[in-house]
Amino acid sequence: MHFPEGVKKYIKYVQVEDKASNRPYTSRYIGSMVADIHRNLIKGGIYMYPTTAGSPRGKLRLMYECNPMAFIIEQAGGVASDGFRRIMEIEPTELHQRTAVYIGSRKMVEMVESLLAGHQAKVA
Hints:
The structure is a single chain. Helix content is 44%, strand content 12%. With 124 residues, the protein is α+β, with helices and mostly antiparallel strands.
């Protein structure tokens, strides 16, 4: 309910049955970024921690949570984004800077980015 509109659209998309793309996808939340991403490295998928009304800048820390995981995922052929730009290209402005993160399968992350961009364009 508190996620950006593009994230809500993505969640609805992955819940719709489509045998050609093997949907609906399952969702999991282990509660640990490292454990969730480890599972995605083995089985595929996306890890999302979007902005919310209560955390408009995101919740996870760029320097010591998002950057290390982004590096690992990119080495495995995946993508890490804040929804609009590559995590590894975000220039830190403070030690504990927070960010949204979408990390995992290139196809899945790019779809979230396109839905977020589409919503952004409608709002502007």
